[in-house]
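re: ur msg from earlier - yeah i can do the magnesium ion complex, just paste it... oh wait u already did. ok heres what im feeding in:
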Amino acid sequence: MKIILLGAPGAGKGTQAVRIQEKFQLKHISTGDMFRANIKEGTEIGKLAKSYIDAGKLVPDDVTCEIVKQSLEKVNGGYLLDGFPRTLFQAEELDKFAEIDLCLNIDVDTSLLLDRICGRRVCACGASYHVSTLGGKTTCEKCGKPLYQRDDDNPETVKARLATYEKQTAPLVDYYGKQGKLVTVKCGTETPDEVFEKVCAVLENFNK
Ligand code: AP5
Ligand code: MG
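and the outut:
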């Protein structure tokens, strides 16, 4: 299966991606994670990406498409694209170098997103938590490493990220709808495991 995970910042793409990759054995490719790795390593791509990420804007399409194209060249089998494509240009480019089976749109009420993102704590291993469920713990349940807050998870940047999503990424719902590849999972206050049940129902049905 070749799947796109679409959804606003904080919709739970990363949270569901960890579960999906384990259960369905798909390679998880997150452009956000790739940019953050580049920032940590101090590469030229990282330096460029940081200025956009800190402002809540999208990294330019040419750079983003190139890193995705290169990473897909190394993948054999199914994969899960988390956070790509995010513009119509990226979606059209992706159509040139990959054949996507399904776009899974995680649709969460916007009023929940700001609190979710500002309360997020992440681990270098990819795990993601919310302060409200950590009970004061500051290390990762899975690997024991210290948890930290992403630089772009502050209210000002989050508001800019949400506006960017509405303007540049939300039109992809129509784009994949017209291709007959869109499935929307509508979520309210369900827990991540409850959302995953809905996601599994879609993917298991698709896999038949
Ligand atoms: P990226 O890293 O992709 O960030 P994002 O899209 O803003 O999404 P998030 O990672 O914030 O949210 P998520 O949906 O993964 O939610 P999560 O599961 O963590 O991109 C960062 C930046 O990189 C972009 O702003 C842009 O600058 C750049 N970039 C990336 N891709 C690009 C592209 N294609 N083109 C150009 N630029 C690009 O969950 C969030 C929180 O909610 C967590 O605390 C979690 O524990 C909690 N949570 C999750 N599910 C639930 C639930 N069901 N109930 C309660 N809490 C929940
Ligand atoms: Mg994410």
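cool cool. The chain has a mean pLDDT of 95. ping me if u need the other ligands too
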